[in-house]
Write a structure and sequence with these properties.
This protein has 151 residues and is of the alpha+beta class. Helices cover 66% and strands 19% of the residues. It has one domain. Strand 1 and strand 2 form a beta hairpin. Helix 1 runs antiparallel to helix 2, helix 2 runs antiparallel to helix 3 and helix 3 runs antiparallel to helix 4.
Length: 151
């Protein structure tokens, strides 16, 4: 199971999405107040201002899907489908992040200060998942070619 490189890719993608769910995504200045954007909420000067539990749910769901996909090694087509679903979740993570920033705060008074580790991790997970999809597809092609030889 973990002997295959795609399993390692999926495990690392799962860890990256988990890190994205629990670390700060970005730091902003909002009307001279320090705003920390995390997946669980937006904190203004250390106090919870807005809850963003949906972003946390997307990140954790993506992490769990990547982890469960590892154990479906006997059904490669299902692995590919779940990995594609996971890619959609990761893109949705970024879209929802942008929607929250745009919806909650006026863009004119929001100043970007620092990028967090959490906002980079979904890109890494996305790349790792795409690499896993390619390797799973290569395994499927190899197995099908062996089946043709047996007939």
């Amino acid at each position: 199971m973990l002997q295959r490189i795609q399993s390692v890719f999926l495990l690392l993608a799962s860890a990256a999405m988990l890190v994205a769910s629990v670390t700060p995504l970005a730091l902003f200045l909002y009307n001279a107040d320090k705003a920390v954007f995390e997946a669980m909420g937006i904190y203004l000067n250390g106090d919870l201002n807005s809850s963003t539990w949906g972003l946390f749910a997307i990140g954790v769901t993506s992490s769990v899907v990547a982890l469960l996909t590892i154990f479906l090694y006997k059904n490669r087509m299902l692995q590919i489908r779940l990995s594609i679903f996971n890619v959609v979740l990761m893109v949705g993570f970024y879209l929802y992040f942008g929607f929250i920033v745009y919806k909650l705060y006026s863009v004119e008074s929001l100043q970007f200060q620092k990028i967090g580790v959490g906002i980079i991790m979904p890109v890494i997970a996305l790349i790792l998942t795409i690499l896993a999809i390619r390797r799973i597809g290569a395994d499927e092609v190899l197995v099908r070619s062996f089946n043709r030889l047996r007939k």
